[in-house]
């Protein structure tokens, strides 16, 4: 397995953070697979279930106890079969969030007793409601189309657009 990971965070102005990370993974099989006298050409194929490229980006802004962000991630296609004749498509996901620390407010500081931090959070995941395969190969992977790759289903679909809200406190 050969690859590289790189990350860069830039703060162009106070409280604004822009983060990017990139991963490249060149993980291939070193030899062909032989099963019951049949040779399957796996040599040089990208390993199953793992993308060759991943990219993540996030833009966030913090101001007086409030933090807002938008982020996105990309996963390139992944081999489902060992010979690489069945692939799962690449996808982009974007998320949005806002959080506010109420403890920054003087009134809240005075009236919360032993509570150190009270934080309200709201987020939306999968903003575009993208349809994608999140997990695959949990029940194993087929060798090729000829070995039933199109009939052997071992996929979990990704979560649709979801909305989350929370209140948290530290004591």
Automatic annotation (TrEMBL):
Task: Tell me where it resides.
Answer: Cell outer membrane
- The answer to whether keyword Iron applies is yes
Going by the UniProt record, its keywords in alphabetical order are:
Cell outer membrane, Ion transport, Iron, Iron transport, Membrane, Signal, TonB box, Transmembrane, Transmembrane beta strand, Transport
Q: Locate the transmembrane regions by residue number.
A: none
Predominant subcellular localization, coarse grouping: membrane
| Gene Ontology cellular component list | cell outer membrane
**InterPro entries the UniProt entry points to:** Beta-barrel_TonB, Beta-barrel_TonB_sf, TonB-dep_rcpt-like
Family indicated by similarity? Belongs to the TonB-dependent receptor family.
Q: What is this protein called?
A: TonB-dependent receptor-like beta-barrel domain-containing protein
Which source organism does the UniProt entry give?
Answer: Gluconobacter wancherniae NBRC 103581
């Amino acid at each position: 397995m050969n690859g590289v990971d790189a990350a860069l965070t830039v703060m162009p102005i106070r409280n604004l953070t822009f983060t990017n990370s990139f991963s490249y993974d060149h993980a291939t099989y070193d030899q062909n697979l032989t099963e019951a006298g049949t040779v399957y050409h796996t040599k040089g194929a990208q390993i199953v279930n793992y993308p060759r490229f991943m990219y993540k980006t996030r833009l966030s802004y913090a101001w007086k106890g409030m933090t807002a962000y938008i982020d996105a991630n990309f996963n390139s296609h992944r081999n489902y079969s060992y010979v690489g004749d069945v692939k799962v498509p690449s996808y982009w996901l974007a998320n949005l969030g806002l959080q506010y620390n109420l403890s920054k407010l003087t009134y809240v500081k005075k009236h919360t007793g032993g509570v150190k931090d009270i934080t309200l959070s709201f987020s939306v995941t999968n903003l575009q409601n993208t349809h994608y395969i999140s997990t695959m190969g949990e029940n194993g992977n087929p060798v090729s189309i000829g070995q039933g790759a199109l009939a052997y289903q071992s996929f979990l679909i990704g979560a649709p657009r979801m909305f989350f809200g929370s209140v948290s406190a530290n004591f």
